């Protein structure tokens, strides 16, 4: 038997953290790391945010769980606030991003069914997508490495190349129910859909009676400097999955929909035991208290600009390490000129945490509460890591 009692599914770094403070994580040996991974865009308000700690502990003293057999006032309140802040009229709470996507997929299929088109169940998705690790969401994501060995791929997903609108038009058929995409691909390597493409996809959906589903599990909750990334495009989806940042570290997800899109989701057709429980809702409401505060998102945009400019300067200085900077807000990517795993390790040596992504990119996803000083320290560490790699590469070439 190998050393651990845990499934070997994760390639973990040999680091264990004891506690966190804002953008910093402290190991069990007292070493401080600058956390620009933020639990993969989850710790939206950093570590140990006093408002979140208070909301969770106060709720923990009162009531943890009752199930959805009863009214949950915190859930109604968070639902109303999300409706107020978005295109949506209806919300279903889950515990994870994949479950939010499952609900989104079921909502779209049920909409077509309720509208007299049970034959419309297929969903068009894009290469490079990531929608989770359940059987349906690996089929939606379409990545061979996640599908292999898990039996027949769940039917009903048609994948087209990234941002290929002609391929979308060709793929739409009598069985198509919806189009699903991340406005900014996260795992796929911080790739944005151009605004024009989002507008065109909205048009195609309207012309063909399809629903537009956005997966904002990673790019939502302020990451791009707006509450949701779709706001930049001037169009809105019919259904949207969110998770990660809304819980700030507590497992929370949600599927949002217009009243029309949710019309098939009637009593008894879907459910969850834990989803939307009082603890999760207390934290979700507390995250929104902070993110919706006037000026908070302006501050995110301001800090993001500072960070991106600094990163661009480092890319100019070390083009043999970093080919370019992509993304917007505090969802940035370094396109690497050498294997991204090597760059990630060099950053970790500088005690800076980042996340590798597809397309040979390193993701930088600091907490939205990152300070300008944290950003300056982060840039210093990234420059030092890039310098080491550049010098090592030059030495090896001689
Ligand atoms: C992380 C992620 C998911 C899956 O979320 P889980 O909570 O891991 O199930 C789905 N879509 C996107 C865009 C993600 O980044």
Description:
This protein is 38% helix and 18% strand. The strands form four sheets. A seven-stranded mixed β-sheet has the order 4-12-11-10-7-5-6, with helices on both faces. The protein has a four-stranded mixed β-sheet with strand order 1-2-3-15. Strands 13-14-17-16 form a four-stranded antiparallel β-sheet, with helices on one face. It has two domains: 17-48 and 294-397, Aspartate Aminotransferase, domain 1, CATH 3.90.1150.10; 63-291, Aspartate Aminotransferase, domain 2. The longest helix is centred in the last third of the chain and has 26 residues, at 372-397. It starts with 16 loop residues before the first strand and ends with a helix. It has twelve helices and 17 strands. Helix 2 (50-62) packs antiparallel against helix 9 (278-291), helix 10 (296-317) packs parallel to helix 12 and helix 11 packs across helix 12. A hairpin with a 3-residue loop joins strand 16 (355-357) and strand 17 (361-364). By secondary structure, it is α/β, with parallel strands linked by helices. The structure holds pyridoxal-5'-phosphate. Pyridoxal-5'-phosphate is lined by residues 96-98, 101, 130-132, 182, 186-187, 215, 217-218, 243-244.
């Amino acid at each position: 038997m190998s050393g651990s009692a845990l499934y070997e599914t994760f390639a973990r770094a040999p680091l264990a953290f004891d506690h966190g403070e804002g953008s910093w994580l402290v190991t069990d040996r007292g070493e401080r790391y600058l956390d620009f991974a933020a639990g993969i865009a989850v710790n939206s308000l950093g570590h140990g945010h006093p408002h979140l700690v208070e909301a969770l502990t106060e709720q923990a003293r009162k009531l943890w769980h009752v199930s959805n057999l009863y009214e949950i006032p915190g859930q109604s309140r968070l639902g109303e606030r999300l409706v107020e802040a978005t295109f949506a009229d209806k919300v279903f709470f889950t515990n994870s991003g994949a479950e939010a996507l499952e609900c989104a997929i079921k909502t779209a299929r049920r909409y077509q069914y309720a509208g007299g088109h049970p034959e419309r169940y297929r969903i068009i998705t894009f290469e490079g997508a990531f929608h989770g690790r359940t059987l349906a969401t690996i089929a939606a994501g379409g990545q061979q490495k996640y599908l292999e060995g898990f039996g027949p791929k769940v039917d009903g997903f048609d994948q087209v190349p990234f941002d290929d609108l002609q391929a979308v038009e060709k793929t739409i058929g009598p069985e198509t129910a919806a189009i699903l995409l991340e406005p900014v691909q996260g795992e796929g390597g911080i790739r944005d859909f151009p605004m024009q493409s989002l507008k065109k996809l909205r048009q195609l959906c309207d012309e063909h009676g399809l629903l537009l589903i956005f997966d904002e599990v990673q790019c939502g909750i302020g990451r791009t400097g707006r509450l949701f990334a779709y706001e930049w495009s001037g169009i809105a989806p019919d259904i949207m999955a969110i998770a990660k940042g809304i819980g700030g570290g507590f497992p929370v997800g949600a599927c949002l929909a217009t009243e029309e899109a949710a019309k098939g989701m009637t009593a008894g057709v879907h459910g969850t035991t834990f989803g939307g429980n009082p603890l999760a809702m207390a934290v979700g409401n507390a995250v929104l208290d902070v993110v919706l505060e006037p000026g908070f998102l302006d501050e995110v945009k301001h800090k993001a600009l500072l960070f991106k400019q600094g990163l661009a300067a480092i890319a100019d200085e070390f083009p043999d390490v970093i080919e370019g900077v992509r993304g917007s807000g505090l969802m940035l990517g370094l396109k690497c000129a050498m294997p991204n795993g090597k760059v990630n390790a060099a950053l970790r040596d500088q005690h800076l945490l980042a996340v590798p992504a597809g397309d040979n990119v390193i993701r930088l996803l600091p907490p939205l509460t990152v300070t300008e000083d944290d950003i300056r320290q982060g840039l210093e560490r990234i420059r030092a890591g890039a310098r080491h790699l550049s010098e090592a590469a030059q030495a090896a070439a001689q």
